[in-house]
């Protein structure tokens, strides 16, 4: 790293994404980390995200959403320290219909102008299958390959852009993490000296956060919002259970039944209060009934999708039991590169909050250890140089088409940009 910073030209990192907020979730910490290490950074959003949701109707309408999200994108980039940010004028939701040659050309032009050392974009999985992500990832990958050749887009050369081939290409990657929000939150609640009651803002934010965290595979919970009619037993005393509940609206009574059948109401819970955490933490059956007083809506975090065979009552088998912890190993096309961004989680959260129309949430409401665990690592698949180049520096393992010195230099350089200490 030292060597790179000392060079007369600051190293450059370019991120190309589809929508405002992709930059933060895919590479927010990595961008902030590279800025801190003296890199020049540029982020492109191909669209202004005008087809997105409007989760805070006070800040945007359907007509103004594109403009508002564009401003949010610049604000988020500012939080990450990214100096160069640009929104292209493609339509949100239609990137797969854009002329691939034209889209590639637009990115080639940006690469030739900004002249990055490293390019980051989406891989063929589009993070979670979003067609816009897949389209922009494919176009950027093509642009990476073509920007260095004067055979491609010669009209740009006539306009003064010189060919430029960046050294490295990474695809953003979201490994499947088995971590359970329900488990982390339950331990946090159980360790708290006073009973937690979330504000209205917290109660609104947690479902959004839980859905986002599971979509991006930071966590494995099955997230649902369930409605319980008045009088229904949401949980039953003595049954096994691994679900965690947050009351979104309505009230519940917590009722304990003694051995002789006497029922005592222990507490009334309302919006913003959790229940179910003790059975998770102590891995014991439910200590009491929780009964809906009037109609109740709850956010339910479960360790797995509901089973058609899950019985109720004390004799039910523990069908909700969670899976083991840790990352699920999945095959990737290139070398998987984890980037430790734990030091930059605060900046990443500030950037998430800058996307207010999408995440009207204050993440400082959640336990900091949980956020570290969810957001403290970012992952990339190194597409270029391909993995084989690195392994071929060991003589005799692979045939070397290039001279050993050349290969060693390329491989060493390959290690630098993203493996910042
Ligand atoms: Zn997106």
Note the main attributes of this structure.
single chain, 421 residues, alpha/beta, Rossmann fold, Jelly Rolls, 2 domains, seven-stranded mixed beta sheet, six-stranded antiparallel beta sheet, elongated, disordered C terminus, binds zinc ion
Based on CA inertia axes, which overall geometry fits?
elongated
Largest sheet: 7 strands, mixed
Find the CATH superfamily of the largest domain.
LmbE-like
**What is the distance, rounded to the nearest whole angstrom, between the alpha carbons of the first and last residues?**
9 Å
Number of strands: 15
* Secondary-structure element string: HEHEHEHEHHHEEHHEEEEEHEEEHHEHH
Q: Could you tell me the radius of gyration in angstroms?
A: 25 Å
The CATH architecture designation of the largest domain is 3-Layer(aba) Sandwich
Percent of residues in helices comes to 25-40%
Average predicted confidence as pLDDT? 86
Identify every distinct bound molecule in the structure, by name, code or SMILES.
Answer: zinc ion
Number of domains: 2
The portion of residues forming beta strands comes to 15-25%
CATH domain fold name of the largest domain:
Rossmann fold
**Neighbour order of strands in the largest sheet:** 3-2-1-4-5-15-14
CATH class of the largest domain: Alpha Beta
Count of separate DSSP helical elements: 14
Low-pLDDT residue intervals, each spanning 5 or more residues: 318-322, 389-421
Structural class by sheet pairing and helices: alpha/beta
């Amino acid at each position: 790293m030292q060597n790179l910073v000392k060079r007369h030209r600051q190293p450059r990192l370019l991120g190309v994404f589809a929508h405002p907020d992709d930059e933060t979730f895919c590479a927010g910490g990595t961008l902030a980390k590279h800025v801190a290490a003296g890199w020049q950074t540029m982020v492109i959003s191909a669209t202004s995200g005008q087809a997105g949701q409007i989760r805070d109707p006070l800040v945007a309408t359907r007509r103004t959403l594109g403009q508002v999200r564009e401003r949010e994108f610049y604000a988020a980039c500012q939080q990450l320290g990214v100096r160069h940010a640009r929104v292209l004028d493609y339509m949100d939701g239609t990137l797969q219909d854009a002329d691939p040659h034209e889209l590639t050309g637009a990115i080639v032009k940006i690469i030739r102008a900004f002249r990055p050392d490293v390019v980051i974009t989406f891989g063929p999985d589009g993070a979670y299958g979003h067609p816009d992500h897949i389209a922009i990832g494919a176009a950027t990958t093509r642009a990476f390959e073509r920007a260095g050749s004067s055979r491609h887009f010669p009209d740009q050369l006539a306009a003064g852009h010189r060919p430029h081939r960046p050294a490295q290409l990474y695809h953003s990657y979201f490994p499947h993490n088995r971590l359970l929000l329900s488990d982390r939150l339950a331990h946090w609640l159980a360790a708290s000296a006073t009973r937690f009651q979330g504000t209205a803002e917290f109660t609104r934010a947690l479902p959004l956060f839980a859905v986002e965290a599971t979509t991006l595979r930071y966590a494995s919970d099955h997230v649902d919002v369930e409605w319980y009619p008045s009088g229904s037993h949401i949980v039953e005393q003595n049954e096994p259970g691994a679900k965690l509940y947050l009351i979104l609206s309505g009230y519940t009574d917590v009722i304990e039944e003694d051995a002789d059948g006497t029922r005592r109401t222990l507490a009334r819970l309302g919006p913003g209060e959790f229940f179910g955490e003790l059975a998770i933490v102590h891995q014991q059956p439910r200590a009491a009934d929780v009964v809906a007083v009037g109609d109740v809506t709850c956010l339910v975090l479960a360790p797995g999708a509901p089973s058609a065979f899950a019985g109720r009552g004390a004799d039910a088998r523990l069908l909700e039991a969670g899976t083991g912890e840790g990352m699920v190993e999945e095959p990737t096309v290139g070398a998987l590169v984890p980037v430790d961004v734990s030091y930059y989680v605060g900046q990443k959260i500030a950037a998430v909050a800058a996307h207010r129309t999408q995440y009207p949430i204050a993440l400082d409401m959640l336990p900091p250890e949980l956020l570290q665990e969810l957001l403290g690592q970012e992952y990339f698949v190194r597409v270029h140089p391909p993995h084989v180049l690195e392994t071929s520096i060991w003589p005799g393992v692979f045939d070397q088409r290039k001279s050993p010195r050349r290969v060693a230099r390329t491989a060493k350089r390959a290690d630098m940009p993203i493996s910042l200490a």
